[in-house]
């Protein structure tokens, strides 16, 4: 009877530990995803702001003409 109770308590502790780890892993994955998408979005925004290639093309066209 004591052995059964100990086994049940052990199983409950293991389930609680797994639940805690799962929620921690989900939070970590969401954090990593948010950082990744933030870097990606910032990179696209920065690249869209760059105009030096347009200036070079205009200079090249002016030199050709």
TrEMBL record:
Compartment(s) of residence: Mitochondrion membrane
Domain Cytochrome c oxidase assembly factor 3 mitochondrial coiled-coil: residue ranges: 14-59
Q: Where are the transmembrane segments?
A: 25-45
Domain of life assignment: Eukaryota
What membrane topology does the annotation report for this chain?
Single-pass membrane protein
Q: Which residues form a coiled coil?
A: none
Q: What does this protein do?
A: Required for assembly of cytochrome c oxidase (complex IV).
What is its quaternary makeup? Answer: Component of 250-400 kDa complexes called cytochrome oxidase assembly intermediates or COA complexes.
Put simply, this protein is called: Cytochrome c oxidase assembly factor 3
Q: What species is given as this protein's source?
A: Aleadryas rufinucha (rufous-naped whistler)
Q: What is the lineage of its organism?
A: Eukaryota, Metazoa, Chordata, Craniata, Vertebrata
Per the record, the gene is Coa3
């Amino acid at each position: 009877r004591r052995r059964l109770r100990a086994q049940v308590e052990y199983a409950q502790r293991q389930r609680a530990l797994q639940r805690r780890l799962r929620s921690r892993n989900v939070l970590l994955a969401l954090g990593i995803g948010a950082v990744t998408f933030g870097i990606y979005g910032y990179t696209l925004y920065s690249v869209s702001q760059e105009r030096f290639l347009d200036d070079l093309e205009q200079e090249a066209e002016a030199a050709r003409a």
